[in-house]
């Protein structure tokens, strides 16, 4: 039976050669209760007005096939991806449903299935569904872009971040031959067990390619989850912001991940025990936490390279087997396995890891507070450090029920049968711990071993371990490992405001913002390129740098001081883009200073301002107020040698900045992003005032000028502790 709860909008047109009725879908709230072939007329947009799915599956044991060229589209082509809403297909409580060939785009979630044992999804294309607008730019990171995967028992992943496909509380699911690009999260599975996910391409997304929550005994093989990343600018910063090619959170057990390519991710693979397993909240008896976390998972013969952070992060885990994986040029380290126990790391290739590591966390394998781990028969080459094991007084984590139940010593770890060639340090051991060293081949390294007095190094030169082969079953026919050789290297991670560039579409990308000038890269322009710039007191120019970078650049510059709106139009064959902005050509005089709790700016504003005239205050000039301190302070902004040597740290500092800016008559918007307090005055009158202790916050103030005028702008900012940022933008108001 084919029905609709409101309108008879499904029309059975004819019986197909395979005896499936052909059905035309043209409106919301369509219920499908028997096998059919779905046809959607070209150009039709169907919004999910009620948030319950445009197509609703109403029966078990049915097959739904989408006709070629039919697209279930939920938003108009010009809509912003962060404004997509609703669900394309909703399935709840029906088993053994097969959906084949669907094209779904423009929704918060393309397909949401729950309690759907035996579900088969074959050949779906769920590209271009909801994704966030990213505030991080090639110039600087924005901390508000971080994801938080730590909670999902109430579908927080779907509610907060969306997904192209979301499957929950289902067993024996098959997902194969699907393609999801240009979204945020591709496939999320929540309490999905005994299932097969293979031959899919979940690449070029801004969050997670495949995300797993409390999933067991699944086979995930021969999928491409490359370029699932945010928070990266090559050579500028590498954060990742908890994006990942493959994410595994909260007590996943006995899964096999084989022959997948998950390169160029925030992490390539990100596994974490989860909040409940750690006892953050402590709702179980202490004995319950024994052995809790991701357990007995096999990662074998995957390519997990070129991440902005880690190739594999598998923390607070038990019995992980990491075998035969390729881990090359990960920015921080190849494997980060803090608090892991009984991990086997064998027959992997670690090359060139750690180039952008933070402190001592860098290189091939890094394990903090780990025990009974075996690192054997691996090949290490040109890493900042081959293997780094340590114990430290990690007071916060050591107090958690997980640590009390499982222990957190760095002990009984074995390193044997490995090859170290050209690493800066082959092995590094720290803190109260012990480690057993068997035979290892070490050649052309700068330093073989660095150790501390508290470390007991047990040498057994004859000790060689060759682990037994790890048999596994891999489904699928595709070979994604090595399929994108032409994109190897982190320099090929190029971010846009909507996510990673796919290296196929035309791209106009902001690469430099100096306040009085901005520069854009023009990638993959197919021919007949025309670029023009309009606006008073601005000029545009094209250049093609020589050398490795042959991408055309277009720069807009201000010709005189002031605020100058501009419009850049880029046209080429089959592509058109218009960019608007405002150049602010001015010089800020900024004074940075420390303050103490005794002179809190929220209670004693005048006393705090007097500190800017004190002997310890340091002045500098800046072309724009764009201070992305993060967890640092003013001395890391590279504004002047005097400010750098003043060593103004990341807590309890202030800045007062002034400039005189010519503004034409009309409405002007002042936009700040601050952590913590901020105040903006123009000619002594407040425009923005958020003089509080707060996280990164956007504030907007409006100034109306009846005539052209040079105004004096004063920006005051204080930071208490933690993360810090101060940014000011000025633009023509509507």
Description of the structure:
With 734 residues, the chain is mostly beta strands. The protein folds into 4 domains: 1-243 and 489-503, Pectate Lyase C-like (3 Solenoid); 265-271 and 297-392 and 408-437 and 452-463; 506-584, Immunoglobulins (Immunoglobulin-like, Sandwich), CATH 2.60.40; 586-732, Jelly Rolls, CATH 2.60.120.380. The chain is 4% helix and 42% strand. The chain is built from 6 helices and 61 strands. The protein has a 17-stranded mixed beta sheet, with no helix packed on it. Strand 43 (495-496) and strand 44 (499-500) form a beta hairpin. The longest helix has 6 residues, at 156-161. The protein is globular and about 75 Å long. Mean pLDDT is 93; it is low at 1-17.
Summarize the structure.
By secondary structure, the protein is mainly beta. It contains six helices and 61 strands.
What structural keywords apply?
734 residues; mainly beta; Pectate Lyase C-like; Immunoglobulin-like; 17-stranded mixed beta sheet; 16-stranded mixed beta sheet
Derived structural class: mainly beta
What share of the residues does DSSP label as strand, in percent? 35-45%
Mean pLDDT: 93
Quick one: CATH class of the largest domain? Answer: Mainly Beta
Specify Rg, calculated over alpha carbons: 28 Å
Residue stretches low in confidence (pLDDT < 50, at least 5 long) are: 1-17
Percent of residues in helical segments? under 10%
Which architecture name of the largest domain does CATH use? 3 Solenoid
Taken together, the total number of domains comes to 4
Number of strands: 61
Per the CATH scheme, the topology name of the largest domain is Pectate Lyase C-like
CA-to-CA gap between the ends? 53 Å
Q: Major beta sheet, specifics?
A: 17 strands, mixed
